[in-house]
Amino acid sequence: MSEPISAVAIGDGIKNRIHRGAYAPGQRLIEVDLAEEFAVGRGRIREVFKTLVGEGYLEFVRNRGVYVRRFTRAEILEMGRVREVLEGLSARLAAEKELDQTQRDLLRAHQTRLDEAEASNDVDRYNAENFDYHATICRIAGNRHVEQSLARVRLPLYRLQLPRSFSSDSMASSNRDHQVITSSILAGKPDAAEAAMRAHVHAGNQHVIRLAEEHFR
């Protein structure tokens, strides 16, 4: 008889659905449905909910249930300012590394896919690749404190960074930033990599300022 799925695995599955947009901000999660889906007791699901509320993925509304958390514009901008520093540091640390061939090939492959998504005006593909690109830079940087902190402040941007209204010109501008960041890291230029990344994240924060109120809490 197989072991029941762990709370950690269930939590990772829910977080992955939030990242992919399968669960939308403000969507209610039904305890009994998830318990049936994962073939576990409702107590296990309540344990997962409690953890994800603590991590900022979900929110508990008294007498109503548990929902995928929605953030205010002000909350996202506050986290965005922190991201400017942390993402910049991540790029600097990556550029300071003596990259092996696997890391170089991985970074170049990300950039190629970003270029292809931009060329085809594929917002969904670009959005997904964008997050993978930033995560790869963070892993190359190799600082677990930066990585853990970034996981928290990136959260509300999973479905905000490139909404459907995102224009081809804006995607092109974003990808030009990526190209500079990529070349700076590959060339081992920490100052340039950090400056380019911080400017890139700052531009994303400006984008949040311009988004319609419907995207927020």
UniProtKB/TrEMBL annotation:
<dbReference type="InterPro" id="IPR036390">
    <property type="entry name" value="WH_DNA-bd_sf"/>
</dbReference>
<dbReference type="Pfam" id="PF00392">
    <property type="entry name" value="GntR"/>
</dbReference>
<dbReference type="InterPro" id="IPR000524">
    <property type="entry name" value="Tscrpt_reg_HTH_GntR"/>
</dbReference>
<dbReference type="Pfam" id="PF07729">
    <property type="entry name" value="FCD"/>
</dbReference>
<keyword id="KW-0804">Transcription</keyword>
<dbReference type="InterPro" id="IPR008920">
    <property type="entry name" value="TF_FadR/GntR_C"/>
</dbReference>
<dbReference type="InterPro" id="IPR011711">
    <property type="entry name" value="GntR_C"/>
</dbReference>
<feature type="domain" description="HTH gntR-type">
    <location>
        <begin position="4"/>
        <end position="71"/>
    </location>
</feature>
<dbReference type="InterPro" id="IPR036388">
    <property type="entry name" value="WH-like_DNA-bd_sf"/>
</dbReference>
<keyword id="KW-0805">Transcription regulation</keyword>
<protein>
    <submittedName>
        <fullName>GntR family transcriptional regulator</fullName>
    </submittedName>
</protein>
<keyword id="KW-0238">DNA-binding</keyword>
